[in-house]
């Protein structure tokens, strides 16, 4: 069989399975030329299972292959049955058998498959033994240049949230939306994030697409801006309610003018976000893996995050599916912090534009306000979503079994069910072997030599006596009741007679900030507290400290303990949520035990438990056991590789179109696998 021409779609049609059935093996596929734009992609159908190359009897057999010549790449590529990409074809010739191919020796930069015009023809003989057809293609060019193999039934996933790193972030939510979508895209799925445009992002371009949404009795026009990062479509919803809240850069003031405060129109802002997100897959024509342009369509999975986007499953059911739209779409709600639920006066339900039939999903009696009736967005999202997830397995158990950690929703979640998947972290930004903020880079083989040097630099930086032999403790985190910095402050007198130093860094509650700043006055040669955030100093603390204390009253997942372990800094953690899943007592850290979740008091039992655990940790400092724990910490893999695989499995259980992507890590081309390693 031979074909030629300039239309890739025409050429693909000539390889339909019905035509292949009629061929008699062996047959020859001959490609004369195919003209494509630069950086475009030709999808090539190949036969899998029991396909073999005609080869000498002494050559090993492989099951399938396809020859690709990629734009801007100088070598021929072969994707074999195990999806390995061989960039040096000649060196693999003996492994592939008697495979004959011609390389263009006169050109080192190719324009799609255009260079084949000068090659005469490129012939490969194959035998047909099955009709199983699979499609391989190269992902569109993005900032990561990741190369992946896509399945015919890739999932189309739309993450909706109020934060996405690096554009907007106040905590773990922004990190998740920055990294998890990229990890899923690297596994072969088409992924979009939809978040507000809080600032004028230089790398996001106006799509010129405008949609109209209704908030109460008012109509609002929203506009979409677009960027591509790591193979993910980053969509930003543009509206004055997001862009004009803060003079200058928004920074951490996404939800209120001060930490802990809320803007009075947050219900309107996030209702608008949800409605705009529902329109995005239908109206935005975005480039696909083969460099064509199309919308995501309606067969998508929406992944909502926390209360801010909990209206989306409600709008999806009432405003779309009840009218014959998004009939195959599914919604997932991921709870990052159940303590924030979006509890509004029940009278405001009528402003949401939802039918009365959904009223009961929002109805909630708030015991924290003397039994006042509220419209609880998170409750409604839990009830209306097709699946509920949270950010660690242990936290999933807590929210259904602990009335305090379930925050009055434990009975609802117990009925709907919940799945916990431990988050990953950005191991590219937090990598001791490449960290630009620390004076000495290191890995697990040099950690014990490097950390004393960094410790001395840190001590000098914050004004502590320089002593590489003293155990250095650290605290980094938001200063609020959940994080337990007040418990730490109350505990210090209990171990102040020990030989130690403490460096604390954080911002938040003004009372807690004052506690931090007072540390130097109380313990002038032992402690320094800084009520600010400085990226360089945070990296220096993580790298230079011997222990990091995480005394959270509750912690759905937590990031600090993962970042610390990357640098061989041993975590001392309360036994809650993701801290239980990620820190193993005596192996990678120290478990304090569970704390009282009531943030209005500091429980003396918690103070005692923290004091005892810190003393226990200091006791093993500079011993073989401490060295072993330090190295154990650095051997942990907290990348997004495994979380992405687990998310994929959960999303594939949803009965939606195209859910059987089933791309295993072994089926990702090397460039994509390398990218997976740094999420």
Summarize the topology.
Layout: E1 2-3, H1 8-13, H2 17-21, E2 27-31, E3 44-47, E4 52-53, E5 65-68, E6 77-80, E7 85-86, H3 89-96, E8 122-127, E9 133-136, E10 156-160, H4 172-186, E11 190-196, E12 205-215, E13 218-229, E14 232-238, H5 240-243, H6 266-283, E15 286-287, E16 293-294, E17 301-305, H7 311-320, E18 330-335, E19 343-345, H8 359-362, E20 363-366, E21 372-376, H9 377-384, E22 387-390, H10 393-401, H11 410-416, E23 419-420, H12 447-462, E24 472-476, H13 485-495, E25 501-505, H14 510-517, H15 519-522, E26 527-530, H16 535-544, E27 547-550, H17 560-566, E28 570-573, H18 577-582, E29 590-591, H19 604-619, H20 624-634, H21 641-652, H22 670-676
Helix pairs in contact: 4-21, 6-7, 7-9, 12-16, 13-19
């Amino acid at each position: 069989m031979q074909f030629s021409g300039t239309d890739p779609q025409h050429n693909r049609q000539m390889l339909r399975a019905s035509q292949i059935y009629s061929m008699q093996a062996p047959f020859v596929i001959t490609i004369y030329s195919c003209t494509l734009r630069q950086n475009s992609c030709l999808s090539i159908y190949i036969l899998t299972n029991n396909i073999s190359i005609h080869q000498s009897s002494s050559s090993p057999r492989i099951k399938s292959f396809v020859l690709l010549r990629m734009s801007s790449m100088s070598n021929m590529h072969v994707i074999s049955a195990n999806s390995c990409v061989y960039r040096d074809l000649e060196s693999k010739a003996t492994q592939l058998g008697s495979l004959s191919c011609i390389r263009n020796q006169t050109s080192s930069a190719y324009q799609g498959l255009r260079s084949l015009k000068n090659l005469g023809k490129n012939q490969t003989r194959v035998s047909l033994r099955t009709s199983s057809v699979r499609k391989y293609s190269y992902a569109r060019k993005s900032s990561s240049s990741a190369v992946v193999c896509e399945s015919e039934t890739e999932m189309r996933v739309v993450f909706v949230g109020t934060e996405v790193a690096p554009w907007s972030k106040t905590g773990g939510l922004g990190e998740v939306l920055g990294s998890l979508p990229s990890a899923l895209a690297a596994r072969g799925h088409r992924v979009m994030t939809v978040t507000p445009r809080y600032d004028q992002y230089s790398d996001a371009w106006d799509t010129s697409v405008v949609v109209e949404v209704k908030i109460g009795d008012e109509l609002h026009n929203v506009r979409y801006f677009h960027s591509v990062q790591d193979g993910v479509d980053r969509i930003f919803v543009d509206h004055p309610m997001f862009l004009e809240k803060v003079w200058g850069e928004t920074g951490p003031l996404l939800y209120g003018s001060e930490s802990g405060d809320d803007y009075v129109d947050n219900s309107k802002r996030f209702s608008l976000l949800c409605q705009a997100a529902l329109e995005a897959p239908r109206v935005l024509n975005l480039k696909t893996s083969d460099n064509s342009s199309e919308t995501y369509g309606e067969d998508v999975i929406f992944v909502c995050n926390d209360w801010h986007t909990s209206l989306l499953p409600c709008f999806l059911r009432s405003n779309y599916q009840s009218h014959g739209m998004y009939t195959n779409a599914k919604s997932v709600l991921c709870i990052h912090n159940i303590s924030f639920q979006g509890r509004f006066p029940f009278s405001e339900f009528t402003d949401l534009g939802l039918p009365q039939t959904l009223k009961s999903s929002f109805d909630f009696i708030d015991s924290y306000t003397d039994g006042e009736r509220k419209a609880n967005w998170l409750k409604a999202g839990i009830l209306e979503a097709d699946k509920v997830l949270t950010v660690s397995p242990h936290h999933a158990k807590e929210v259904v079994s602990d009335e305090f950690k379930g925050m009055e929703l434990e009975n609802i979640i117990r009925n709907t069910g919940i799945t916990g998947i431990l988050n990953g972290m950005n191991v590219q930004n937090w990598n001791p072997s490449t960290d630009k903020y620390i004076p000495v880079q290191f890995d697990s083989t040099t950690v014990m030599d490097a950390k004393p040097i960094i410790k001395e630099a840190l001590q000098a930086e914050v004004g502590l006596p320089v002593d590489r032999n003293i155990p250095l403790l650290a605290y980094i985190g938001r200063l609020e009741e959940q994080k337990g910095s007040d418990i730490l402050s109350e505990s210090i007198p209990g171990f102040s007679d020990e030989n130690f130093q403490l460096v604390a860094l954080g911002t938040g509650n003004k009372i807690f900030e004052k506690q931090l700043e007072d540390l130097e006055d109380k313990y002038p040669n032992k402690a320094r507290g800084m009520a600010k955030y400085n990226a360089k100093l945070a990296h220096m603390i993580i790298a230079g400290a011997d222990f990091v204390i995480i005394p959270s009253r509750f912690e759905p997942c937590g990031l600090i303990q993962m970042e610390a372990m990357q640098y061989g800094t041993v975590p001392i953690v309360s036994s809650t949520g993701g801290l239980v899943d990620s820190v193993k007592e005596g192996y990678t850290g120290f478990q304090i035990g569970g704390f009282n979740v009531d943030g209005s008091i500091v429980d003396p039992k918690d103070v005692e438990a923290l004091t005892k655990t810190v003393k226990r940790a200091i006791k093993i400092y500079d011993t073989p056991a401490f060295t072993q724990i330090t190295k154990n910490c650095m051997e942990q893999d907290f990348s997004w590789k495994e979380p992405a695989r687990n998310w994929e499995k959960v999303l594939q259980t949803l009965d939606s179109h195209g859910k059987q992507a089933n791309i295993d890590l072994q089926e990702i081309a090397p460039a994509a696998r390398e990218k997976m390693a740094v999420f």
